Amino acid sequence: MHRSLSWDDARILLETVRHGTQAAASKTLGIDQATVSRRLLRLEEALGAPLFLRDGPRLMPTDAARRMAEQAEAAEASLMAAFAPDSAAEVEGVVRVTAVPMITAHVLAPALRLLRELAPGVVVELIATPENLNVTRRDADIALRFARPGTGGFLARRIAMVAYGVFARRGTDGAKLPWFGFDETIADQPEARWLARREGEPVIARAADIETIYQAVRSGLARALLPLAMARRDHALVTLPTPEPPPIKELWLLVERQVRQIRRVSLTLGWVEAVVRDAFPPNPG
Questions:
Q1: Residue 165: beta bridge partners?
Q2: Do residue 218 and residue 121 come from a single domain?
Q3: Which phi and psi (to 5°) does residue 218 adopt?
């Protein structure tokens, strides 16, 4: 490159890599899209090679763009560290964690005592929602999702595999009970596809919320697919044999790159990882 890369140019490149479109990058930076386009073209001319390849509406970064974005992120993190508040203030405050209700109620909430011991100054907000809140927009600091995330200004990794089993209330003839199924809003999920193959078997009701299905099974009304981490802790339930292995789902952990540098968030992140890995072991048996 024949000239030095300015910080403004670096931020434009970085946000375009993170969000995948010039429109999203311009909105994040608070500048017009024409400026973003002009700066990127100038960078490509200076580099002598393309920085992005178009894939439908999205811009896919080339290897050169990824390398430059990584350097920009390192510079961004250094700036944040230089202007960060003192460490005592960083370990106290609110951290927002979002996940589906099953995980907040049956995995995270029972383990809050451990977080209290690790970080007594942290007040965690457990946001139980089936929706994927946006960590980049700071709707949440940490997110647990079943859907594989797209690209963005966050770190994402698969943290666990969530195994399912068929359960019924103890003392009932589980094999003769109707199914409590999944509604059409999650028809593309592994558990819904598995149950859809049970053609001809009666279904008494459907829902998308696993907590609702769990309570119906506890009542003795139906049998259903439930996460092992939830159902095996309940002695009122028993596992039923299945004609084929029950489904397994990926669980992803997301945290915004900048927020991760904050001490209270990093402490909470460690707690989330520990309790989730304990709840969903690699070989549940």
A1: 226
A2: yes
A3: -60, -30
Q: What is the DSSP letter of 234?
A: -
Domain end point (choices 82, 115, 131): 82
* pTM exceeds cut of 0.70: no
CA pair distance 127, 241, nearest whole angstrom = 34
- What gap in Å lies between CA 38 and CA 60, rounded to an integer? 18
Domain-terminating residue out of 28, 62, 82: 82
The residue type of 43 is L
**DSSP label of 92:** S
pLDDT digits (tens, 9 = 90+) for 31-69: 988 998 998 998 888 888 899 998 877 888 888 888 888
CA angle 135, 139, 143 (to 5 degrees): 45
Q: What secondary structure does DSSP assign to 122-144, as a single string? A: EEEEEEE-SS---TTTTS-SEEE
Find the domain containing 192 and state its range.
Answer: 90-285
Residues 126, 186, single domain; the answer is yes
Count: domains in the chain: 2
Residue range 68-111, pLDDT digits in tens = 887 777 666 655 555 555 545 578 899 999 998 889 999 999 99
Q: Which amino acid is at 271?
A: W
Sign of the alpha-carbon torsion through 184, 190, 191, 195: positive
